[in-house]
Design brief:
This protein is of the alpha+beta class and 448 residues long. Helix 3 crosses helix 4.
């Protein structure tokens, strides 16, 4: 229940008219109170200060200062010039903080022990929380009870057990849920622990006006009572229900009496059922008023003439999309489909691959290809090895193993005597190759 100090940066012009009261929270904001700051000490939100307590001091955290405190006091009907208002003593010292932590550590054990004592005394009450004063001289016991409880004997036992001054304070189930805190079914923090300060009574009539099913588990909150949020939209529903006719719970038709099931204020429809079936019939307000007026005249209509609410209208897709809108997936699918069609057309228009081509000359590559291809080579007629002359031609002949004959059919070729040339006869494909007698040449070699 923290309030935003939107007057925090307001400059102080007159110290005499400045607010001399600050708001202090205790036990992590579960309890707040106002204290007078007579010396106008500069306190900031979140500072730990020592304030007056019952025969001692208490330690709290500053939650609000300045002019915003006057608005909070007006909201809680507190007066600034109240003489019984307690004062701020000093800033909390290290010794004060140490004592405060020691006494706060006693609270969980005190809750368990106090509940056991109340059960032994057979009192119909529940101890919800125990709050120790910072100096350990006083303890406040918050309890929940349906009726009045005589706890005079209980106070004596508590005082002798805990060695403190006992104060009993009764709270409701909603206040307990606000102190404990939690997350509601809506997914947000509980209203009673954040901003809701006054708790109005909630009954099941609020659920009926809003056409909610009377389900105790769904309508109950963390406190076990009906949810406070049932009252939030109740006024809106009551205003909308003013347009619906009254005394139309039962209408007469030829098939029998039709009973009202629910009212749909969003579509302005009234749903009825007939005794012979469990089917529900939605009627417009005008039709219900007409049937009701006919019944008053003693006329019974043949049919209810319900409205057809099963047909769903197809939503028209917007042609243009805003910059802040969502990207349509259809445009991406169209672009991808168009891209695939273009790729398919390019594959169909691509010319077929040629079988063969230029044949490389020389050495082992030509020999391996000839062995794999069975000696037949396809392609155009090309003659290499005789061009270039000189050393270049000689190197090519040495690397390639001679001249290669390409084409279809056979061809005979004679070469002149060359002493620098490697001897040998070579037969390619289906053709024969003959060489003249050369004393420097060795035996011939035949390859197929």
């Amino acid at each position: 229940m923290n309030a935003h100090d939107w007057l925090r940066n307001l400059p102080m012009l007159d110290f005499d008219s400045a607010c001399k009261v600050i708001e202090v929270s205790f036990s992590q904001g579960t309890r707040k109170d106002f204290f007078r700051n007579p010396t106008l000490q500069p306190f900031e939100k979140g500072d730990l200060i020592a304030v007056e307590g019952v025969s001692g001091f208490d330690l709290g955290e500053v939650s609000l200062t300045g002019e915003i405190v006057r608005l909070q006091m007006k909201k809680r009907n507190a007066k600034e010039d109240n003489p019984e208002m307690k004062k701020v003593l000093r800033r909390a010292t290290d010794r004060d903080i140490e004592i405060w932590k020691q006494n706060k550590a006693r609270e969980p054990e005190a809750v368990i022990r106090s509940r056991a004592i109340a059960k032994q005394l057979k009192l119909d009450m529940k101890i919800s929380q125990v709050e120790m004063q910072a100096d350990g001289r006083k303890a406040t016991f918050f309890y929940i009870a349906d009726g009045r409880v005589d706890f005079r004997e209980l106070i004596k036992v508590y005082a002798s057990e805990f060695k403190v001054k006992v104060e009993m304070r009764q709270i409701g189930a909603r206040q307990e849920a606000g102190k404990v805190g939690g997350i509601g079914s809506c997914g947000r923090e509980l209203c009673c622990s954040t901003w809701l300060t006054d708790f109005k009574s909630v009954n099941t009539a609020a659920a009926r006006y809003q056409n909610l099913s009377i389900n105790q588990t769904k309508l109950s909150g963390q406190c076990g009572r009906l949810k406070c949020c049932l009252n939030y939209e109740l006024d809106t529903y009551l205003d909308a229900l003013q347009h619906f006719p009254d005394n139309c719970d039962v209408i007469q038709v030829a098939k029998g009496n039709a009973f009202l099931i629910k009212k749909d204020i969003f579509k302005n429809l009234m749903w009825y059922t007939l005794p012979d079936s469990n089917k529900q019939y939605p009627l417009t307000i005008e039709r219900v008023q007409k049937i009701k007026s006919l019944n008053r005249q003693g006329i019974t209509p043949d049919e209810l003439e319900p409205v057809d609410v099963t047909g769903k209208q197809k939503e028209a897709e917007p042609e243009t999309v805003e910059l802040v809108g969502q990207i349509s997936l259809r445009t991406l699918e169209k672009a991808e489909k168009k891209k695939k069609q273009q790729q398919q057309q390019q594959r169909q228009q691509r010319p077929p691959q040629r079988q063969g081509g230029q044949q490389q000359s020389g050495g082992q590559q030509g020999q391996q290809r000839r062995q794999q291809g069975g000696g037949q080579q396809q392609g155009g007629q090309q003659q290499r090895g005789q061009q270039g002359g000189g050393q270049q031609g000689q190197q090519r002949r040495q690397q390639g193993g001679g001249q290669q004959q390409q084409g279809q059919g056979s061809r005979n070729q004679q070469r002149p005597n060359n002493p620098n040339r490697n001897p040998g006869n070579r037969q390619q494909g289906q053709g024969n190759q003959q060489r003249p007698n050369n004393p420097n040449a060795g035996t011939g070699k035949q390859e197929s």
